[in-house]
Amino acid sequence: MAKVKTTFFCQNCGAQSTKWVGKCPSCGEWNTMVEEVISKSKSDKAPFSKNTSNRVSKPQRITDVEQKELQRISLKDQELNRVFGGGLVPGSIVLFGGEPGIGKSTLVLQVALQEQDKTVLYVSGEESEEQISMRADRLGLKNENCFVLTETSLTNIFSQIEAVQPNFLVVDSIQTMHSDYLESSPGSISQIKECTAQFLKFAKQTGIPVILIGHITKEGSLAGPKVLEHMVDTVLLFEGDRNHTYRLIRSIKNRFGSTNELGIYEMQGKGLREIDNPSEILISENQENLSGIAIGAMLEGIRPLLVETQALVSTAAYGTPQRSATGFDLRRLNMLLAVLEKRCGFRLGAKDVFINIAGGVKVSDPAIDLALVTAIMSSNANIPVTGKIAFAGELSLSGEVRPVNRIDQRISEAEKLGFNKILISKACKEINQRDYQIEVVKVAKIEDSIRAVFG
Ligand code: TYD
Ligand code: MG
């Protein structure tokens, strides 16, 4: 094997040591020593480096730099295109993270199979070719230009890439890959770092985009060092509740686009379906005559989303009243209940209050307050909210309805979905009824809102 020199570096202070030690002798931190390659022998070039020129960079004026139009690879998957900022950028390296079983492999395979006119190499260190082919059958997609390779050694992978010459490369998952230069086992920090560095070099030198799948630790961060997120161009997180079918792709870093975009999918028996109008599926059809339901206009990233908030208020059967919230912060619920009690005189202290946001959505947008309070009132009085009304407003401790950001987008979304009325804060001065078909009702206080809805 090639002659390679490795040394252990402290990830905290950068101290070096030729041997692994548990505690850094320099800064005293535990378990921070990580093996890294410091030099490879000259003859031992990575196989892909053959066809690259040895370009020497020279400083040039920033105004003289030629800006080439980013030639993006437009994918069939519109949600992914949007999250990437208009398509996959050649030579970019994407880290796609998510919890086990959320559907990372499914989505990436689906994308690979959809790209009929491109050669895709899907490298898997987790599943056999047979398993992948069975999944492809399940997805009901066929693509002769999609190659699968079950391999974990970088050297072998790069030599196969030479043979296949793919247009893009998928690696499932970076934690299973290993470089022969290092002795540590796959999944260790030094292996993950070294392998990512190799794929990064490969992507930059050949212009072939690479998608790396990565696992997530229990704490919710990408397994491996933080430095991994610094190395790659784009970090996407695939999220969702395993008990629900909705999945979100959130971009937490993107060198070629905004991180505000969001991709929404539904997991079905035949793979992931793109959802271009998420509000429609989050609102049940016949909620007209049920009490305890109100529709809130929230934002997910920068996408407006109408969600159904549900409340159930009942007399506490046992001594202590229960408060429970699914998809919403319990402390905020308690605060809203206190505001209702104090400002509007509703006696909810002896009642059980249960809150649910439909579809397994988790809401942190305070704009949902107004809808939630309305749902609680509706359930308490057992009067349904009739007439297709949406709500967008934050509630302050004084019972005042406060304005929320991007209110125009929320109003347009409600209008698009056929709502007749939307309640917003009186402080939204810039909003003019003339610009909208939907009736825009401005309220200053929570009492006004309740009066406007229930009369
Ligand atoms: P998978 O892609 O293996 O997850 P990850 O790679 O993130 O660990 O997804 C597995 C789950 O998706 C599994 O529980 C079954 C479900 N699934 C469907 O519901 N429909 C499908 O068509 C496929 C392929 C998987
Ligand atoms: Mg997988």
Describe it.
The protein has helices at 78-84, 104-114, 129-139, 154-164, 189-206, 227-231, 278-282, 330-344, 369-381, 407-416, 446-454; strands at 4-10, 16-17, 33-40, 93-98, 120-124, 146-150, 168-172, 210-215, 234-240, 246-254, 262-268, 271-274, 293-300, 303-315, 323-326, 351-357, 389-391, 394-395, 401-402, 421-425, 439-443. It has 455 residues and is an alpha/beta fold. The chain has three domains: 6-37; 73-276, P-loop containing nucleotide triphosphate hydrolases (Rossmann fold), CATH 3.40.50; 280-454, Ribosomal Protein S5, domain 2, CATH 3.30.230.10. The strands form four sheets. A nine-stranded mixed sheet has the order 6-5-7-8-4-9-10-11-12, with helices on both faces. Strands 15-16-14-13-17-20-21 form a seven-stranded mixed sheet. α3 (129-139) links the parallel β5 and β6 (146-150). α2 (104-114) packs across α3 and α9 crosses α11 (446-454). The structure holds thymidine-5'-diphosphate and magnesium ion. The site of magnesium ion has 4 residues, from α2.
Structure at a glance:
The protein is α/β, with parallel strands linked by helices and 455 residues long. The protein folds into three domains: 32 residues; 204 residues, Rossmann fold (3-Layer(aba) Sandwich); 175 residues, Ribosomal Protein S5, domain 2 (2-Layer Sandwich), CATH 3.30.230.10. Helices cover 25% and strands 26% of the residues.
